[in-house]
Each structure stands twice: as C-alpha cells, then as structure tokens.
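Pasting two entries for a bug report.
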Amino acid sequence: MAQARLLADLRACVGPEHVLTGDDAVPYLTDWRKTVTGRAVAVVRPANRDEVAQVVRLCAAAGAPVVPQGGNTGQVAAATPDASASAVVLSLLRLNRVRAIDPDNDTVTVEAGCVLQTVQEAAREAGRLFPLSLGAEGSCTIGGNLATNAGGTQVLRYGNARELALGLEVVTPEGEIWDGLRGLRKDNTGYDLRDLYIGSEGTLGVITAAVLKLFPLPRAQRTALIATPGLSQALLLLQRARAGFGAELTAFEVMATPCLRDVTRAFAQQRLPFTEIDDDMWCVLLEVSDNEGEQHAQDRLEVVLSGALEAGEVSDVVVSVSESQSAAFWHLRESITLALAQADVCVKHDISLPASKIPDFVRETDRALATAFPGVRMRVFGHLGDGNLHYNLLPPRGASKADIQRLVHDRVHAAGGSISAEQGIGQHRVEDLERYKSDVELALMRRIKTALDPRGVMNPGKVLPMESKGDCP
C-alpha cells in the first residue's frame, strides 16, 4: 500500500511516462560491467531541479532510499540499487541543458545529466576547452563525473573533476536545494561544501548542476606513440617530458604490450605502428598541447624525444602527422577495456601510487602473483603521469578473485597507495575501504554521513557499509 501511494505521488510529480516500472525499468537496474543487478520501486526521471527536490521529499517521507544515476557507466556499481526492491532510482538524464557559457570568466554552467562529450563540444564552439576526457565520454554524464571525482587522461595537466568544478547545485536528503552555482576561483566563506559533495557517490545529496572551468584552446596538439624497453625507462621518459614540456604536457599514458596485442586481435582494423616490439616492452602515449603553433610543438617534440632515444629510454617512436592519426593512437588506448571485456574473467584494480614507486611495485607484484597463481597473465595500463594504474590480470582457471585482490591491495596499501584512484568505492569496494582506512578516517566519514543524511536515504550501502542505526527501513 505504501509503495502504491509513493508511485502515485511520483507520477503526479514528474508525469506517468517518467515513472518506469517492470520491463521499462530493467535497463537502469544493472551496472555497466553487468556484475550487479538490483530491484527498485521505480525508476523516476525528473526534468529539472525542482522535480528532483520534490521526488527526494516524497521518497524521504515514504522511507524509500534514493539511488541517483547518470549515464550508468561506472565501474563499481555505485548507481545500482540493491535487491530489496525498496529504493527509487533517480535518473538525471533529462537534466541535460547547458545553462550558460561565460567565455570572459572561462566557465560553463551545465546540468547534471549533460553528457560529457556535449559539454566538450559546447566549450569548443565557444572557443574554449573543457579538458575532462575519458573513454566513456560519449555516454557518461557530468553529474556522475562529479559524484565519482572522475579522472581520465588529462589529470596530469588539469586535475580530476574536483579541480574542474567551481560551484554546485545540490538537492539535500531532505529535498532542500543548495544553490552554490558561483563561478568564483576564490571564496573562503566557511566550509567547502562543494568539495564534500564531489566524490561522495550520491551518498550525501544529489548534484543537479555545476559551474565548470574552461581553458583556452591550444593552438596545436601533437601525439606520440612510443615504445620503451620497460616501465623504468617510461618513468625516466616522464621526467624528461615534464622538464621539456612543463604544463604543456597534457597526457602520459602507459600500456603493457600484451594489452595492445589484445586490442589488435579483438579489432582487426587496429594496428600497432611498430615493426619490432616484444611483450616485455611498454608503450607510452604522450600528448603535448602547445600554445604557440604546429611547428613549435613539432620542434619541441623532436628535441625531447631525440634526447630520450640517445639515452636509451625509447626504442621506437611514431609522432602523429594528422588529427586522424592522433585519434587512431588514442583509439588503441581506449579500446583496451573493450578488448579485456571479451575475456572470460578479468580481475581489475584501479590503484594509485607515487609514480616513483610504480616500476618496483609492478615488477614485485607481478612476481608475487605469478608465484601464488601460476598461469596468471598481466594486463596493466594507465595514467603514469598521475600515478594511476589499471592493474588488471587474467587469472588461471579456479583462482580466487578475492584472494587475488587481497594480495594486490595489501601490496598497494603497504606501498602507501590507494585502492581506488578514479573509479570510486560504490558497492564493490566497501569491504576494502574498511580494511585499509584507519579507524579515525572511517569514524569521520560516518559522522559526515550521519550529519548530512541522518535517515540514511541517500544511496545506502555505497562507500560506507549500512549499519542498523540510521538505515532506511
């Protein structure tokens, strides 16, 4: 009876066609990796912030948890309901307007359901750059990017999503609206609520809009695909590139050769441009954004890379001569995840370490895994420039995924790293968070959750484990 009443109220709020149940709701109930399928009272699709606030108030009054969802492209099932069928999935895809662009202030104000690629294109039309870039940019949304503090390929130069946001609009668990859409780069008036909501994975409130930073469009970009003898040499090349390019080094990706061989096997139209490369080598995808022009960018690349060749840090290099060739290099990098998805089982880790420790960590952890799980095959790639590795592996038949992840995460923790660099905690890493965070950190996080969401209605079971006190009925 209570659910029937809630459904009637929700339909009156957003319109019957935007309250999905039964088969219509199914696409929203499974995470992108298809590891978790939940159940829900309904999937509700409000059109604006006021409807979001009203939906949240209705759910709070009915004791129904709220699971905010953007493009549903996450890796840790943070936007997927549990199996209790007690939650309402709040889809923000209809909040998709670019509200305003201020070129003089270098900002754009967008709603949470805007697809990342749409924001990039709107910025470019205004002669500006919005630099957040990741493989799912054609379907992920700004709200999800902010809720997970997304990283991507240009963190080295521009930072994570948190560094790209100036202001937020948020609906609280009580259904109130906090309008913090201020395009200010300096504002020391009290606690920074913006940074608290960013990265909270929908557990503290619902982000409905944001003011984002824009940057000048570079006059030239050059991309190089580079073969290096090993990961240690790739790290030396990173140091050389930082010294040679400074802030104009916008991306520095590393890929173990077996990852790229997987791509070329899975997608026949893709090719590696190198004539000789073996499985012990690593490839680097380096991008430079130059503010002077094409020739200046080309000259600087030649200086830096010729020095690396002479020093033995580089075995082979191909520099893009066109936008299409640059896109092909990036397509190789972005296809790794798709190629790995074709494996029967892939055990994934999204870790971060000081860049200086990464070569030793990879070498020693590879060895430990090979000893503990004979036949394991490593598939490692990531953003060496900011210390983030997607430390993935294809396990032998019968190996325990939990045991593998425990070994890797224990070694990450011992090295002073993080078990989640850019993908978040969601449902998948709640137990890991409890294992590796200190008691003080966990207690502070729980106090924040209790203070902002005392009834536990916002995305319960994500980030922090559900507890009996304060949980939704």
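Entry 2 (this is the one that rendered wrong in the viewer):
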Amino acid sequence: MNKANRKEQILELLKCVKDGQVSPDDALLRMQTAPFEDLGYANIDYHRGLRQGTGEVIYGQNKTPVQIRNIIFNMLDKGSNNIIITRISRQTADFLIKQKINLEYHHIAKLAVAERDSRTQRVGSMVIASGGTSDIPICEEAAITAEILGSLVIRLYDVGVAGLHRLLSQQNILAKARVIVTVAGMEGALASVIGGLVSCPVIAVPTSIGYGSNFNGLSALLAMLNSCANGISVVNIDNGFGAGYIANRINKMETI
C-alpha cells in the first residue's frame, strides 16, 4: 500500500468519526492495526509508535548497509525520528552518513540513532550497574537506548561482587532509582545482590563475558533466573537493548 492510499484511508476513517459512523475507540483500534510497508526484504511497521509508544527499531546485524539505508529513508519519509539501529558496525554507520542521513553513532554500544530529536527530555531515575569493565558495551547499549527514549540514566560501572564495597558505597543512588539494570557475566551474582538491597524493579542482563565454564553467558543466565531475590526479571544474554527498552517503560510509568 503506497503513502497516498494510506493517507486517503486515514482521512476517510476520520470523516466517519466526525459523521458519527465510527466511534473514536473503534477508529483508534483500526489505526493501531493499520498497514505496514513491504520493501521485499523488510515489512516496516509505521504504527508501532501508536500501539506501543515507540517506533520500530532496526536490528542492524546481518542486514546490508543498503537495506538499512532504504529502511531509514522510508521511515524518515513517513516523519519518523529517533530511529534506533542496534548492532551496527562503524563501516555501516560511515556508509549511512555518506548517504546524507543525520546519524549519531555510538561505537562502544554499536548503536546508532538517525534524526535524533534533541527536544526529548529525560525523566525519572534509571540506574545501570555493571559487574565489570568488560560488560560496558552491553551497558551502553541499554543506557543509550533508554536515553534516546527519554529516561535519565545514571551509570555505575565496575561495581561487581569481587569488591562489594564499591557497590555499597553507591547505596544512596540505588535507593533513589525507579528501576535498575544490572549487567554481569561470570557467575552473574550482581543481580541478586542489588535485588536484595533495593525496592524498585531490577532488570538483569547476563553477558557472554567469562571463562570457559561461563558457556558464553549461560551460567550467568541460569544464575539470574534462579535468583532468590524478589523483584528481578531477566532478559536474554547480551540483550542490552531489550533491558534498556523495558526499563525505560517502567521508568516512564513511575513518573506519570
């Protein structure tokens, strides 16, 4: 369905609401399930923001630079901004910048945002804590995602259980948080420790950082899933984006 047809359908729907033929609630339901655009290799969901409050995010890994460029161009054509592209290389980011796309690239997180809206205000209090310095790339994926979506993020890096005093010295910050993302590899104990100290929700992110018996993050994942601390939920291994996304939603709910 092309842009003109979609516009005509929405206008017709709005006229029906005005004439009393369709209720506002029914119209909203129809708009929430409105069409996507088929590019042949991607189906772009232009109404995800209406349904979920945030537009579609582009997962960059294994997509070609040309595919990512075309998806971004189509989204920009529909008026999208703050377009997040995760797991994207520096080379692909440079290619997109040469295509005259207003792109901000974060090399540590391997995350980019196209047409960032500088007017987005950051609210609430979200903390991201890492077990070690090696976990920072996953932390930054979570932190930058949440910041783009409008959360105020405080970073507490390298506060793992091997030196617990480092974490305990930050208890005032932890106590004021609305939601905390804990990122750790090895045995993944940080989530349980923080979960036992705070009253807010904790999102645990296991990472693939660790020696052989870490099994590329599986041991940390199982430890976090089996935590005896209450109020902890767990995302997949190395899924900083997923943690930042859901933590942002919790943070925003708390500020309403």
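Dev reply: Rendering is fixed now. As a check, the viewer should reflect this: Confidence is low (pLDDT under 50) at residues 1-5.
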